[in-house]
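Cross-check.
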Amino acid sequence: MQTTILVAGGAGYIGSHAAMALASAGYNVLVFDNLSTGHREFLRFGSHVIGDLADREALQTAFSSNNIAAVMHFAACAYVGESVADPAKYYRNNTANTLNLLEAARDHGTRGIIFSSTCATYGVPEQLPLREDHPQAPINPYGRTKLAVEWMLQDFAHAYGLAYSSLRYFNAAGAAPRHLDARIGEWHEPETHLIPLVLQAALNEKTRVSILGTDYHTQDGTCIRDYIHVCDLADAHILALERLLAGEKSAVFNLGNGQGYSVREVIDCARHVTGRPIAIKEAPRRPGDPDALVGDAKKAMHELGWKPKFADLESIVRTAWEWELARL
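Predicted model, tokenized:
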């Protein structure tokens, strides 16, 4: 009998790639998504329930109707600027709704939860690369809501025995490789992430990419980020799941490549991959953006046996470009 995994937010960007990886690994996938930011077109793996985590009754029904062994939780709002402008939305969706999910999992004997956390819980880096023991001092409501969930997970594990893995992502990017014919990729409305914005500018010569800040303390003046391929993220979720199902204790893992790329390096890479000109415009930096965010993922590599397959920037950008072309 197949093991059933509930994927909350499985119609979204990272969630749909995790659902694909679960199905490929032989798990029975049950996606739970309200399609507020996810896409019906991404409901390609397993079965699904169109439901909202705010609906406690719908959650209880999903759990009682299925023998759910574990949960992967991707359902969250994730725009830093929006979280500053409307923190209530973020505390309600990211934190309060997660409490509903955790209670349903506890009530039905679910063995564990894999949580989509973020490097935003660290705040401004005190040293690089960031390790899991770096102080957590988030500087925006988005990061604080994710940190609040990490605290909730610790308390649920202690009180109720609900094991967890918190996976702190750096910058997810890329798409399922073309040979998989998965027809899923990075699709946000509005789009705010650098790599898809750069590639969309390659498709439309009238579009210019904004470089938000050119006075950072970096080699070329633009901020540096650690990009991790979405399929590598999905693979890490499978490994973290198998670890929990094997009875291992709860843990936290960074997921990144351990190498940073500047905004200008990303744009230059996209020009190389696409063979097209990409126009830019320089703009003021956003408040609160640190000069560099680079993660240390040695713990995940050692304890999970995780090894990114798309570790170089060109591989990440190339799969993202294939996705953008497939959408035309």
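The chain has two domains: 4-173+228-255, 178-226+258-297+306-326. The two ends are 40 Å apart (CA to CA). Passed to J.P. for a second look.
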